[in-house]
Write a structure and sequence with these properties.
Number of strands: 2
Largest sheet: 2 strands, antiparallel
Distance between the termini: 60 Å
Helix content: over 70%
Shape: globular
Strand order of the largest sheet: 1-2
Order of helices and strands: HHHHHHHHHHHEEHHH
Strand content: under 5%
Radius of gyration: 20 Å
Structural class: mainly alpha
Length: 350
């Protein structure tokens, strides 16, 4: 095997795309999950729980969309035929996800500034909860539609299917629900750690129980998803049994560890292992699907822009990372480390 191919700009940018998707799935997914829980609880979170969720999300929730924007810019610049093809084939779920992102932001902000008006807060709380649930569903469904290999896209990026329902398949619907479940699980684990950091043992127990419950639910969905993949995406199934097998097995191990750490109240390790579980699932998909980027007709090398463009994008992305990564690390250190307890405890007084 020629290992030099893995250092080509096409493959490097494919890996960068995967990393950005993982970061959005883990960090953005945890924030979406906070809204998913409000939907699951029939919009009846008590005041203390809602304020706690707002404290956890408030300083960082907008920053997570930087990864989604980066992926879109990367596809547009480095893999233009992929961007064009997905814009045609997936315009319905993409549009619905975009609407969800917009209304989720409106719901979060307007509910906060409607302080003192319970009825208005309730309305915007419903908007926030619904949008937080529908957005990861349609983003997950889009990923499932691509992974299924059933999109009628030729090698030139032309879509010949039904523009309204061509993206719907058993796998896309499954991945939509699975994405919502993953978001709920990540949020519950992350919020358990945040509650422990604030020293609120009542909330720790509440979110720990929810984490354990959702861990079992998502684990069951994951094993059931293997049957869906086998039936609806045989090419992906064969790949997962080959190249993607190690990451998938790793996701099983890390998922089990996250449950174990929750039981033993090692919340920091539970947070890390749950993040690694999501990383392994997406990594297994990316590794198993390679070299296809939209199976079965569009490959990483066939869809890439000229190498001169790719190298410029790689250099630009690397320089941007020198600014972005330390900035985000500092942001999380300020608001998510143990040093921020005083800030967290005093934020409700504003």
């Amino acid at each position: 095997m020629d290992l030099s191919v893995f250092f080509s700009p096409q493959v490097l940018l494919y890996m960068v795309t995967g990393i950005a998707l993982i970061l959005y799935a883990v960090l953005g997914g945890a924030d979406f999950g906070a809204g998913v829980w409000q939907f699951n609880l029939a919009f009846r979170m008590n005041v203390e729980e809602r304020r706690f969720c707002d404290r956890a999300m408030g300083p960082i929730w907008e920053t997570n969309h930087v990864w989604l924007i980066f992926v879109l810019v990367l596809l547009f610049s480095a893999f233009p035929s992929v961007f064009a093809a997905m814009s045609r084939a997936l315009w319905v779920p993409f549009s619905l996800a975009l609407v969800g992102i917009v209304f989720r932001g409106c719901g979060f902000v307007f509910r906060h500034y409607a302080h003192g008006d319970a009825e208005v807060q309730k309305v915007w709380g419903v908007v926030f909860a619904l949008s937080s649930t529908l957005t990861p569903f349609f983003l997950g469904a889009s990923a499932g539609a691509v992974a299924s290999g059933n999109l009628e896209i030729n090698g030139n990026g032309q879509f010949h299917g039904d523009y309204l329902v061509g993206w719907i398949s058993f796998l896309s619907i499954y991945t939509g629900f699975f994405s919502v479940g993953v978001c709920a699980y990540l949020a519950a684990v992350f919020l358990t750690r945040d509650a422990n950091r604030e020293g609120n043992q009542e909330l720790v127990e509440t979110w720990r129980k929810r984490s354990l419950l959702m861990g079992l639910v998502v684990g069951g969905l994951a094993f059931g998803g293997l049957l869906v993949v086998a039936m609806d995406a045989p090419l992906l199934w064969d790949s997962l049994l080959g190249k993607g097998l190690i990451p998938i097995l790793l996701s099983v191990v890390t998922g089990g560890l996250s449950i174990l750490f929750l039981q033993r109240r090692r919340f920091g390790l539970a947070t890390l292992s749950s993040a690694f579980t999501v990383t392994s699932v997406i990594g297994g998909w990316a590794v198993g699907q390679y070299p296809d980027i939209i199976p079965p007709n569009i490959t990483v090398f066939g869809a890439a822009a000229p190498e001169s463009v790719l190298w410029v994008f790689l250099v630009t992305a690397a320089l941007g990372a020198l600014v972005l990564v330390p900035s985000l690390m500092f942001l999380f250190w300020v608001f998510k480390s143990d040093n921020s307890k005083v800030v967290a405890n005093n934020r409700d007084e504003d």
